[in-house]
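Q: Give me the 3D complex with NAP.
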Amino acid sequence: MKMRSLTVLGSTGSIGRQTLEVAAQGGFEIVALAAGNNVDALIEQAKTFKPKYVAIADESKHAVLKDALPGIKICTVLEAGQTDADMTMAAIVGTAGLAPTMEAVKRGKTVAFASKECLVAAGPLMMDAVKKYGTTFLPVDSEHNAIFQVLNDGQGVSRIVLTASGGPFREWDAAMIASASVEQALAHPTWKMGPKISVDSASLMNKALEVIEAHHLFALPSEKIDVVFHPQSIVHGMVEYDDGSFLAQLGPADMRTPISVCMAWPRRMTSPGQRLDLSTLSRLDFAPPDIHKFPALRLVRDVLAGVAADSIIFNAANEVAVAAFLAKNISFGGIVDTVGRMLDTCHKPAINSLDDVYACDDNVRRTTQDSLKKVA
Ligand SMILES: NC(=O)c1ccc[n+]([C@@H]2O[C@H](COP(=O)([O-])OP(=O)(O)OC[C@H]3O[C@@H](n4cnc5c(N)ncnc54)[C@H](OP(=O)(O)O)[C@@H]3O)[C@@H](O)[C@H]2O)c1
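A: Here is the predicted complex, encoded as structure tokens.
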């Protein structure tokens, strides 16, 4: 494979680190690395991968970065999105990734896309930019990556199916789920991920966000996007065609596989991740999710039937509520309750630009925080 240049936005996170592990297999030169505030990890990565640029959102860390990395230019996170890299991995958690990811899309090259919250908040704007700039936009999320691999030309699709492990609370009753602890929510049975997405997986909010992500990525209406519980996390996504055929992608529960798919696309490369051992697989289970136990899956259908601001509220209220849960200020059940309350009460302006997204997002975050202070 020809040497490809790569920028990693969110390099110190779970996806970012695994991306660098895949890149270390060879064939990639690193142009820029960007992080939020973990300066020690960023310095270590920069010493190993020798990028041209490093960026850190926390400006108080600039001096430390500069001292530790003579010869490497310090830039802003936004500028890290503007490099001329052949490929940008967009893996900043939350809507903080929106502006730099949009900058990478505008370069018209390849964007491997993990930051689902950005697509949820600004899906129509981002997909318009992908079309306008002719960007190759590759889904990293395992379910979307699976569907991307089996979607052919998108003709004759009856529906797509996103699989969900069901998280740590699949077998729990609603009352136990509502009072689950932070430690219990972080203990995902099959995937090892960052804290925000682990909590989202436990509440099934992650799957709800993925339904919105799939709606934008594959231009499909809500009724053609299904969710099914599949506790083994082996089948990551399926497409059912009009003739009754199902095409599915199988693989280990290891993000290094979809990351490798994106990084080598349209070719294939050897992933440093685990392999699937078919001899140890005795069964594959599928079951419909219980939307009473996991109300995020019900709320998302209302969001897709609503206006653009609904998605922003859904995402931003969830980010604030998850942070409050991780700080042990609200209960686990309080997360989706808060999101539902914000969908009922927040102002829903028209969304025509990124500025509109930011204004709506700011307002929702403030309103959610105020509402949680009142509850506390
Ligand atoms: N982990 C998975 O298996 C997985 C699977 C599918 C999709 N995703 C999606 O991928 C994204 C990343 O998830 P993750 O699990 O890798 O999260 P994570 O482990 O929490 O890492 C988040 C990354 O974003 C960086 N960051 C945070 N705020 C920033 C800012 N303002 N500017 C620049 N960088 C910032 C963090 O930097 P610091 O380390 O310095 O804070 C870190 O590098 C999320 O959208 C998630 O939903 C993840």
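A quick observation: Residues 152 and 239 are 10 Å apart (CA to CA).
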